[in-house]
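S1.2 Input.
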Amino acid sequence: MNYFDTLFAKKLAGGGGSVNLEEVTKSYTANGDDVIEPSEGYDGISKVNISVNVATGNPQLNAPTISVSSNAQGQSLIAISNPATNGNFVTKYKIFLDGVFLRETTQTSGNAITDLGNHSVTVKACGTNFDDSPASNAVTVNNYAISVTTTDCVAVVGNPTQIS
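S1.3 Output.
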């Protein structure tokens, strides 16, 4: 006899027994199916409270911050600071030059930007099973080429000898 038969039999018996109903609370964090039945000792369910919190997609990392400095060769160096809220989940960074993807790096310092001219640089944090972070703050790099021209010179020491 299933629990509906038991419930109706007690109800129809009138005074022959009381119906013991249960209130059930369920919480779901993933998609799927579930069958809700009364626990042992209960004749039925009077109320079911359901809470559903199913995340879509992957969690997103928080944006890093960046700063710029120059090395002895005049190259612009980008330093990347990962926010503590990202924990150890960042596996690499994507560097963007004027909004266009330039390259990936795992380094947080010493990232040389050698493209000539004035450029806006941003960085995104990336991690396995995470969506990329929003872009970092933008920094401007100014790289210029310096061209040095030399003339070959020959130094003559002593008295030159003419060869005929």
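S1.4 Remarks. Residues 160-164 have pLDDT under 50 and may be disordered.
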